[in-house]
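Q: I'm writing up a methods section and want to include an example of the input and output format. Could you take the sequence below and give the corresponding predicted structure tokens, formatted cleanly so I can copy it straight into the document?
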Amino acid sequence: MNLTPGQAHEAYVGPPSEPVDVSAFLKSASDLQDGSGEHEPVPIFSQSSSQLTEAVRADWSSLPQDEQDNIRAECCVDDLRMSLEETVKNPRLMGHVSRTHEAIVHAIYETAEPSTRKKRKRTTLADPAEETSDVTCLRLKLEATKLKCWPLTMHAASFIRPPRQSDHNTLIRVKKLGTGIAGERDAVIFITVYNRQSWGQRLLSRSSQHVLLSSQTLGDLFRAVPCTSKELPSEIRDEAGRITGYKTDRREDDMAVDRSVDAVMCVEGVLYSGEQAGSDYAEKVLRLCEGLPEGRRVAWTKGPSMDIAKLSSLTVRLHEPYWILHAGNCEHFFVVTAIRLRHPFDPVSGYPLTTQITPPLSDICRACSKVPAVFSVVGDVRLGESPFLICGPCWRWMGEPEDEEVLVVPLPRHEQGWISNVL
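A: Here is the clean output for your methods example:
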């Protein structure tokens, strides 16, 4: 499949950084905070000048007064802040800025879009002769900006697009998924999870974003990833082994339902799998690799369990996609986007945190074509096709089927990881 420039840009992940040893990063940050024989302790997060060390304040005091004034003037942004606040608080000025921006973007779209379909409504601007004095002053000030990158040119058309599904977020606040408590010297690791597009396996789409502590494990990350494969209903079989139905109601005392889901995660050529008895995904992947031709074999090795492998023990590369496989052939890719020490304003507990979840696209009922389907009906001749996706009210209106061979499969409810704190 040939990708357009826009699709290739959206599907691109990287470029990767040099390998980062998380434990070495923590040690160097700790040494910087604690100091050494040659260097005094340096606060990593200095909220004010009062928290600076005596040596730093002494160096500042030793500078001449005119040099101190020049540094203050160079670093001061009060003029920009005041100008921005005045513009935002004034509805007339903010309306002019918004309309001007929309008109420029519309003009770029009109020129860059070669299609003959109906054009969007053009945003109109007021005649300069009818502008008020404050709007005219702001317009002239913006036009006099000397930054060459300030105005949008026709080249900006390649970087402008409407919002897509992965740009939306189902969460209105940060979601706490666990009970992890941050230590004094813990690092915060930001991770983005991608899924393959169903209509294009070479395209990746962002699924969710998470924040973990360096003291947590790969297993904590796997359990934080929302996936419909974790909500597959359990099969109900008769004495002959035939499937007679499905069960989704999971009670705490129901020992027939196994909540554990095995998986394998590949990080820098090392396979980390779960501890589920009799189902070692890492061993299965290695056996599969051994059966490949010699030229296509991958030099993978088996590591410890994902519930034992702490993130602080890994060596990773930023913006390098790493592989997750579970539930047979369900794949995810996760990317470490940032590693830093925990800021004093960061949450203390509740890790792993989920900061973004892409809204799932639900299948619409094929009977009413109005609401999302909740059942997949297999083998019902009344519906005309099998399987048939149908919503709850339409299925109740159809009535119970007379054929005992009809199977009603409940569709995933998007609960584990989306709305439920219990994974």
